[in-house]
Amino acid sequence: MLCKRTVKNQITLPKKIMDKFDECEYFEVKAEVDRIILIPVKLVSLKENPLTAVRQKIFSLGLSERDISDAIKWARSRK
Questions:
Q1: Helices (H) and strands (E) in the chain, counts
Q2: Cα distances (Å, whole numbers) of residue 13 to 7, 38, 69
Q3: pTM > 0.85: yes or no
Q4: In this predicted model, what pLDDT tens digit does every residue of 36-57 receive, in sequence order?
């Protein structure tokens, strides 16, 4: 399939291609030698952020900032 770049550097991708990425709205773009690579990206809302689950777990365990600091110091000292 052929695509054309416009004077505004925009490219319209063929519908047959985009149908395979129906739920994807954003793509990471890379340039490698003589290729343009589009990688589908799923954006995660702040509520779905993986750190949110970690923070909830820490809270549910009743851990304090001091507990976390002590655990980090302990882990770093075990080299």
A1: 3, 2
A2: 16, 11, 50
A3: no
A4: 999 999 877 766 677 888 888 8
